[in-house]
UniProtKB/TrEMBL annotation:
Lineage: Eukaryota, Viridiplantae, Streptophyta, Embryophyta, Tracheophyta
Identification of the protein by name: Glycosyltransferase
Organism: Cinchona calisaya
GO terms assigned for molecular function: glycosyltransferase activity
Enzyme Commission number(s): 2.4.1.-
Family: Belongs to the UDP-glycosyltransferase family.
Keyword terms: Glycosyltransferase, Transferase
InterPro entries the record matches: UDP_glucos_trans, UDP_glycos_trans_CS
Length: 463
């Protein structure tokens, strides 16, 4: 009888990733988990991304979809941000529709036919291509299950916005939500219609995909996952997609996800962190997309300095001009500002005492999995809901309240103090350590997420 590993190596999965950092990291890590089980994986994304040729294991190969040249040529100044996003989304859809069938055909002709497509849930059109080729399809959601449940309620008309009551609870969400805690595209209707369409479009996956994967774990989002699974049994939590070495010190796998759109200042960050005392540093980052106003940047700069704590602040190169003048050199004594950092290594560093975060889903999961308490400063999209869960459901952080749309320096300073040294800090740290343990439990052999991945792999090996 053929050995299981040999059967696995003949099985070819194609993983189609939307070209944004917050989508690349979890899907690439999931690809590595499939490859670790012996499955051949081809990762596909657009060629705006500098792809490696293949991974260390040789089991992951990379392919890019050529980009359609921008028909518009010169940047149209009359275009709003929403218009630009709309053009970008349509471009990606057109690229995938044109090139994905060719990739499937090429692989089949090369004697490596693709048997399953794992595709980013914001590209449900990819599933139709897979279906035409007679291939199975698994949608991969890069947001929390709670957020997807909210989008689902909106899509089904079971949740009306603004919420009728000042407070409202949903069957899948075990905490009281106010309108402002909902994802921004819903709460601020009309802000980004193209993105609202995109997130609601994900609902098409629920009925058609063969599997629905969430980057989460059962104990973290128990209510949302079980409610959603009661409606759609193919829902499986397969996270956190954090490299295993951070969850279990015995494991010596990758220190990074492996495909970064930004160049991290690794040496400077780690050297600086090494020189600081245990738990003394505030790590601040707003992820790969957030676009903060100058006034907000100034409030953050002053809040960090006034907290008297050491801080490592990631300010992307495109945002640097918004820093208060001279702040970079003035703040040198207490802080280090870099354009990008190796976030996992930073969060895992013993000097880091808290994470001042925009609450992107990856950052949230990484902080929970590495046991780091948070100061939540959500900006847009799913971040307000993630922040609410951090504070009220997982109880590992505090949220900075906004005043007329801006989070002020006093509030930021107080929140940092509360998490770093205040009475509450002990409880927050204890809870963070608890989630770290549960994240590990989900991913180690026999854990809930590990079993779900194993079940996925076994299901096609038995066919
Ligand atoms: N990240 C990083 N270095 C940084 C900032 C962020 O490696 O300096 C990574 C982070 O670990 C996470 C991703 O970028 O995996 C950001 O994803 P998230 O969902 O948190 O936010 P987004 O960028 O999508 O808003």
């Amino acid at each position: 009888m053929e050995r299981k590993e040999e059967t696995a190596a003949k099985f070819h999965a194609l993983v189609l990733i939307f070209p944004l950092q917050g989508h690349i990291n979890p899907m690439l890590q999931f690809s590595k988990r499939l490859a670790a089980r012996g499955i051949k994986v081809t990762v596909v994304t657009t060629n705006s991304i500098n792809l490696p040729v293949e991974s260390r294991s040789n089991l992951i190969k990379f392919e890019s979809i050529p980009e359609i040249s921008n028909q518009e040529g010169e940047k149209d100044e009359k275009q709003t941000d929403n218009d630009r996003i709309d053009v970008f989304l349509k471009k990606i859809e057109a690229e995938v529709l044109e090139h994905l069938p060719m990739i499937f055909e090429r692989k089949a002709a090369a004697g490596e036919p693709v048997k399953v497509l794992v595709y980013d849930s914001v590209m449900p059109y990819a599933f139709d291509i897979a279906q035409k080729q007679g291939i199975l399809g698994a949608a991969f959601f890069t947001q929390s299950c709670t957020v997807c449940a909210i989008y689902h309620h909106i899509h089904q008309g079971t949740l009306k916005v603004p919420l009728e009551e000042p407070n409202s609870s949903l069957p899948s969400v075990p905490i009281i939500l106010e309108s402002k805690d909902l994802p921004s595209f819903i709460y601020e209707t009309g802000s980004y219609p193209a993105l609202l369409r995109l997130v609601l479009y994900q609902n098409l996956n629920f009925k058609k995909a063969d599997w629905l994967f969430f980057n989460s774990f059962d104990s973290l989002e128990h209510e949302a996952i079980s409610w959603m699974a009661s409606q759609y049994p193919m829902i499986k939590a397969i996270g956190p997609t954090v490299p295993s070495m951070y969850l279990d010190k015995q494991l010596q796998d990758d220190k990074a996800y492996g495909l970064s759109l930004f160049k991290p200042d690794t040496e400077a960050c780690l050297k600086w962190l090494d020189s600081k005392a245990v738990g003394s540093v505030v790590y601040a980052s707003f992820g790969s997309l957030a676009n903060l106003g100058e006034e907000q940047m100034e409030e953050i700069a002053r809040g960090l300095t006034n907290s008297q704590c050491y801080f490592l602040w990631v300010v992307r190169a495109s945002e640097e001009s918004k820093l208060p003048s001279n702040f970079k050199s003035e703040g040198e004594e207490k802080g280090l500002i870099v354009n990008w950092c190796p976030q996992l290594e930073v969060l895992a560093h013993q000097s880091v005492g808290c994470f001042l975060t925009h609450c992107g889903w990856n950052s949230t999961l990484e902080a929970l999995s590495l046991g780091v308490p948070m100061v939540a400063m959500p900006q847009w999209t799913d971040q307000p809901t993630n922040a609410k869960c951090i504070v009220d459901l997982w109880k590992t952080g505090v949220q900075v309240k906004a005043c007329e749309g801006v989070m002020r320096k006093e509030e930021i300073k107080m929140a940092i103090k509360e998490v770093m040294v205040g009475e509450k800090s002990v409880e927050l740290k204890k809870n963070a350590t608890w989630w770290k343990e549960l994240a590990k439990k989900a991913m180690i052999e026999g854990g809930s997420s590990d079993k779900n991945i194993e079940q996925f792999v076994s299901s096609f090996l038995s066919t």
